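User: quick one, fold this
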Amino acid sequence: AIAFSEEDATFSAKLKAGAEKETDLLLSKHPYNTSLYRTAIRTYYQLSVLDQSFINKTLKTLDQTIKLSPTDPKLTFNKAVILNSEGKNLEAIGILQNTLKLRPNYKEAYLILATIYMEEKQFSEAQKILNQLLKLIPGDPEALEKLKELEK
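Assistant:
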């Protein structure tokens, strides 16, 4: 659908509708299959490039998948990243904090959390998170780079 969106909008719309219909059908037939839910999350998120309403569908599907697999930090991490991209930073912060409770050594979660704190001008919180990461991964170049940004 995305590939055809520029050259054939009608065909692209049919493919988008077909992808949504088939994904919804699979989820309704297999409501506890987390692998299918993960595929649905990717499908809906990709379709959000064509139709912004798929962001909400992606988030709802993430919520359902988190209910099925509440200890999977990748799911909460992905939800936080999407929320951040939608400007919902306060909600993303809470979810990332939960993600780090699930997986205390999740480097990417520390980095995104620090970035969001920086976006929110909560510089001392960002610094605290980066220092926690550096305790886990001494000399981490990305954490050190973000700390340099904070010093400016």
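User: anything notable?
Assistant: DSSP finds eight helices and no strands in the chain.
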